[in-house]
Amino acid sequence: MTGRELGERFLSKEIEADRRSERWLVLKAVIALAVVGVLVVVRQVFFG
Amino acid sequence: MTIDWLQVGVTALTTVLLAFVAVGAIPILATLYQFLAIPFHSVINHYRKATPYLPRVAVVVPAWNEGAVIGASVDRLMSLEYPSDRLRVFVVDDASTDDTPEVVRGKEQQYPGRVVHLRREKGGEGKAHTLNFGIGRVLEDDWMQALLIMDADVIYLPDSLRRMTRHLGDPQVGAVTAYIAEGSADKNYLTRFIGMEYVLAQVASRRAQNVLGALACLAGGAQLHSRDNLEAIGGRIDTSSLAEDTITTFETQLRGRRVVFEPHAVVLAEEPERIASLWKQRLRWARGNVQVTSRYRRVWFRPSRVHKLGKPSFGIFWFSIFLLPVAMILSSTGLIGLFLLQSELATVVFRAMWITAACTYVYTIVLAVQLDGRTGRRSWREAILFPGLVSIIVMVTAFFPGLLERRLPELLGIPVTPTGEAAWTLFVYAWISFSMLFAWLAKVVESTAVGRFLSPFLIYVVGYGPLLCAVTVDSYIKEWRHEAAVWDKTEKIGRVAG
Questions:
Q1: Residue among B260, B233, B252, B229 at smallest CA distance from B306
Q2: Do A29 and B36 touch (CB under 8 A)?
Q3: Phi first, then psi: what are they for B56, rounded to 5°?
Q4: Which of A38, B44, B69, B465 could staple B153 via S-S, CB 3.0–4.6 A?
């Protein structure tokens, strides 16, 4: 692959796409915390 | 007024035992803290400072008897999505006795000017010496703007190099590392555990380290250095320890340059499929970490304006791993001691600690399997059983009090006696220490007739984490005895699926 094919615009877009994809981390962490939350609720209801 | 010395003694002993349990809780809290930092990578990352940057990259590949894999590795490098006039590969043949020289010379002819075969006649001194031979050659002229250090058997995904170089567009960044994913085509239980470990230790933890500003280690098979950084750290790799990549990482940061982990640059690696090979590899890493801990004793917990390695949080992370077996033994000792002194306090402390451990475990595993969905789907059993079946039972005991020690036996019609309950409690408190012993047994039985079945069974029951802790204990012993630190290469036979 040549430098021309990997143009500045393409590379900038790729950086921006990867930067944006990191935003999903928040949702993924929320899902993980929600699973913990469910377990805590079960504990409080049935074993509290 | 008379002093009740017995009471004073009991109080003092209780305080010491509580401190033991508290020390045992530090690694759990450190892990939780680190994983809670991961979502902040959505805003605290290096992408805003990354730029379209494609420097002239020299790739140095150390190769000792890599005839089975080196040809394919070179072909893969040549087909990277990277300008062909800005990529040169230097294979340092470390006095190989197989067909490595012939294979590499064939690639030299196939890719003239882009592949260089360098031969060391005096070999077997270790990876760092081999790398330095190649680095010395690369630094002889000014063509190289960035140096990529890799292993002969790893496979870079086509877009991985350019995803790494973009961070070097920022002069503050000295080095970049990628995500080394377990890439064996013929996966077994152990390579699946390793795959999950790499998700936890790299895709997850290194994102947190990006957020906190200090990285513990550039992956040995994927480290990209700017020329400036390479020259600043002396133009060579440290040869005095077994952890040359960690030392390079520290030296880079101690000089005020950043080290960045790029999670979207993926490199596939072949990892051990037997405990004996894994033990050998990890013992080398663990002994290297003992050497690093000692060498940088003036860095830990000493905040600096130049680097962030002295931040208390980084020190706690480092020592949480380095001293994890000690923490595990202290927590068991504390809980058993409290149980013998006054069992009610032991119950309260046990629940607090293991409920925290259970929440941390669930949060980290659920987050990790989402971070690398492919590995998560392939290794979901190993993800769930990462701490081992018994530790999960211990967590359930703490999290759902009465379920396993009373409700379940009642349901099954098993009578519960006070002696039986006390024995169960002692087992639960002691397990975390004994898990390392059983993990070591999994290694011992592996070479026996029943090892093929018993070793995987033991690892699923005891846990993969305790296996790594057992290796760490072995590293303490070997360093304490000053046993010869031999650079044992892990055998690679080209099982990576590209």
A1: B252
A2: yes
A3: -75, 115
A4: B69
Point out the residue among A11, A23, A47 whose CB comes nearest to the CB of B403: A47
| Residue ranges of chain A with per-residue pLDDT less than 70 | 1-4
CATH number at residue B149: 3.90.550.10
Give the residues of chain B that fall short of pLDDT 50: none
Whole-model pTM: value is 0.92
* In-domain check, residue B47: no
Looking at the domain assignment, is residue B39 inside a domain? Answer: no
Contacts of B352 in chain A (CB under 8 A): none
Triad A10, B259, B72: Cα angle to 5°: 65
Same domain (yes/no): B110, B181: yes
User: What's the rounded Cα separation, in Å, for the pair B77 and B408?
Assistant: 58
Q: Beta strand pairing status for B258-269 and B155-156? A: antiparallel
Write down the pLDDT at residue B1: 66
> How distant is the Cα of B401 from the closest Cα of chain A, in angstroms?
6
Asked, for residue B271, whether it belongs to a domain, the answer is: yes
Give tens-digit pLDDT for B341-389.
987 899 999 999 999 999 999 999 999 999 999 999 999 999 999 999 9
Check whether residue B256 and residue B355 sit in a common domain: no
Specify the pLDDT at position B242: 86
CA angle B218, B266, B492 (to 5 degrees): 75
Question: How far off is chain B from A18, nearest CA to CA, in Å?
Answer: 7
**pLDDT number for residue B69:** 87
- Number of domains forming the structure of chain B: 2
Residue B103 confidence (pLDDT): 95
- How far is the CA of B276 from the CAs of A40, B271, B280, B439, in angstroms? 40, 12, 6, 12
Residue B222 lies in a domain: yes
Give the pLDDT confidence score for residue B482 in this predicted structure.
85
First to last CA, chain A: 62
- What pLDDT is recorded for position A2? 57
Residues B202 and B266 in one domain: yes
Unique residue bearing structure tokens 């805590």:
A40
Nearest to B182 by CA among B149, B155, B163: B155
Domain of B357, in residue numbers = 321-480
Q: Which residues of A touch B362 (CB under 8 A)?
A: 32, 35-36, 39
Both B250 and B129 in one domain: the answer is yes
| Contact between A25 and B36 using a beta-carbon 8 Å cutoff | no
Predicted local distance difference test score (pLDDT) of residue B227 = 98
Inter-chain CB proximity A33 and B363 less than 8 Å:
yes
Question: Could you tell me if B327 and B268 lie in one domain?
Answer: no
pLDDT value at position B270? 87
Cβ contacts (< 8 Å) between B169 and chain A: which residues? none
Q: What is the ipTM of this complex?
A: 0.93
